[in-house]
Amino acid sequence: EALVHNPLNVFHVQVDIQDVNDNAPRFRRDKFQLEISELTSPGARFVVGVAEDPDVGSNSLQGYELEANDGDEHFSLAVQAGPGGDQRPELVLAKALDREEAAFHELVLRAIDGGDPTRTGTARIRVTVVDANDNAPVCSQAEYTVRVPEDVPVGSVLVTVTATDPDEGLYGHVKYSVKKITQKASQIFHLDGDTGTMTLLQRLDFEKGDSYELEVQAHDGGGLFDTTKVVVVVTDVNDNVPEISVRSALSEISEDAPSGTVVALLHVRDRDSGANGEVRCSLDGNVPFRLEKSFEDYYRVLTARELDREQVSEYNVTVRAADGGSPALQSSAVLALRVLDVNDNAPVFAQ
């Protein structure tokens, strides 16, 4: 109010302050945290904070912009009009999320006024992608084949099954179990459910089983799984000596028996396989007998020439069998044979 004294009067004065763009838009918080499940469908909207600008008119807040790091196209910006005409920014999911591809998304929300020059205010938005069990475990091999010798020590690790699951937490924790196994194999092999290692519980025997097949399942905490086959091939070791069994044998033979007379019938076998099971038979010493293979694993011991009781009345014939292993294993059997006398000598006077 302006007071004038002469003449005395009062005037009312109104001062209008013209706005200048001396305030930038400002968010109440400069950082926002959002958690969004990777199963969220595109089109979903998420409210973020609004900015304030105390300026008026064109100097006040005019709009928002969204900037993503490294050209991220998973989010876009939508601005809704509030009941009072104010603008409310919303984050829109434009592309399906995948935590295994990117666990976090960094965005910058920018508020812009209409001044000249313009002023801006920013807020950083960090989107954390919440994991869902959208990945099943995957075994590193569809089939594991391991060859082990039959003399491998008990407790040895034969094979380790590995599977990966890119999910996290419970959904990414893989455990292992045997889903298909014979009763016999279940007593020989043990699978560690946490590590996937298969160890030997008892000694292997090639002659009792040369291969075993198991089905192993890798499963996560959400019920998803993958299966693989484990084949254990047992290789032979030369751990069996040849076995000689006398099926028939003479204990006595006449000294006038013709050459080629069968003295004994032998059966020879070696439970090993390959070269370890190939048997060679022979007779020890210089004896008037010979070996002849009959068929398959049977041998005959025959006289090689006529006998003479007056020179040798008894024979202990040693039959030796050796396999083709390295080192070779061997066994032997002794045939006791007494030579019977015949009247093939006339009396002879000393003088």
Explain the overall architecture.
With 351 residues, the protein is an all-beta fold. The protein has a four-stranded mixed β-sheet with strand order 4-11-10-7, with no helix packed on it. Strands 13-20-19-16 form a four-stranded mixed β-sheet, with no helix packed on it. The chain folds into three domains: 105 residues, Immunoglobulin-like; 98 residues, Immunoglobulin-like (Sandwich); 98 residues, Sandwich (Immunoglobulin-like). The protein is 1% helix and 48% strand. The termini are far apart. Strand 27 and strand 28 form a beta hairpin. The model has no long low-confidence stretch (mean pLDDT 93). It is rod-shaped, with a radius of gyration of 49 Å.
The name of the CATH topology of the largest domain is: Immunoglobulin-like
Euclidean distance between termini CA atoms: 186 Å
Q: Biggest sheet: strands, sense, closure?
A: 4 strands, mixed
For the record, the CATH class of the largest domain is: Mainly Beta
Q: Write the CATH architecture name of the largest domain.
A: Sandwich
Strand fraction equals over 45%
CATH superfamily of the largest domain: Cadherins
- Please state the oligomeric state of the protein chains shown: single chain
Estimated radius of gyration: 49 Å
Number of domains as seen in the coordinates: 3
Structural class: mainly beta
